[in-house]
Amino acid sequence: MGIPSERIDRLFALAREAVVDDEYDRAREYVALARRIAERNRCGVPAEFSRKTCDDCDVYLRPGKTGRVRLRPGRVVVRCRECGATARYPFD
């Protein structure tokens, strides 16, 4: 675990705290910065974080506040309440 991955983890923690405090713009900035660091250092965003953020508007998804989570047969459907983007993830 290098310095970029530690910074990415910290930025996602800050984004989570910002969403709890209803500061969505600040959370977007944290997520965008974390993705930029991951891109620059070629380390990628961990899967646990990439599913918790909207790919279109970079907001941190929190069920009930900024995201809507629904279970369908064989998949999870996550919809962003900020931009309306939908992501579907398979599960067994």
Automatic annotation (TrEMBL):
The gene is rnp4. It catalyses: Endonucleolytic cleavage of RNA, removing 5'-extranucleotides from tRNA precursor. Binds 1 zinc ion per subunit. Its cofactor is Zn(2+). Its EC number is 3.1.26.5. Zn(2+) binds at C54, C57, C80, C83. Part of ribonuclease P, a protein complex that generates mature tRNA molecules by cleaving their 5'-ends. Consists of a catalytic RNA component and at least 4-5 protein subunits. One of its GO terms (biological process) is tRNA 5'-leader removal. Keywords: Cytoplasm, Endonuclease, Hydrolase, Metal-binding, Nuclease, tRNA processing, Zinc. It is found in: Cytoplasm. The keyword RNA-binding does not apply. It comes from Halorubrum lacusprofundi (strain ATCC 49239 / DSM 5036 / JCM 8891 / ACAM 34). Its main location: cytoplasm. One of its GO terms (cellular component) is ribonuclease P complex. It comes from the Archaea. Belongs to the eukaryotic/archaeal RNase P protein component 4 family. PANTHER family: RIBONUCLEASE P PROTEIN SUBUNIT P21 (PTHR14742:SF0), RIBONUCLEASE P SUBUNIT P21 (PTHR14742). This is Ribonuclease P protein component 4. GO terms for molecular function: ribonuclease P activity; zinc ion binding.
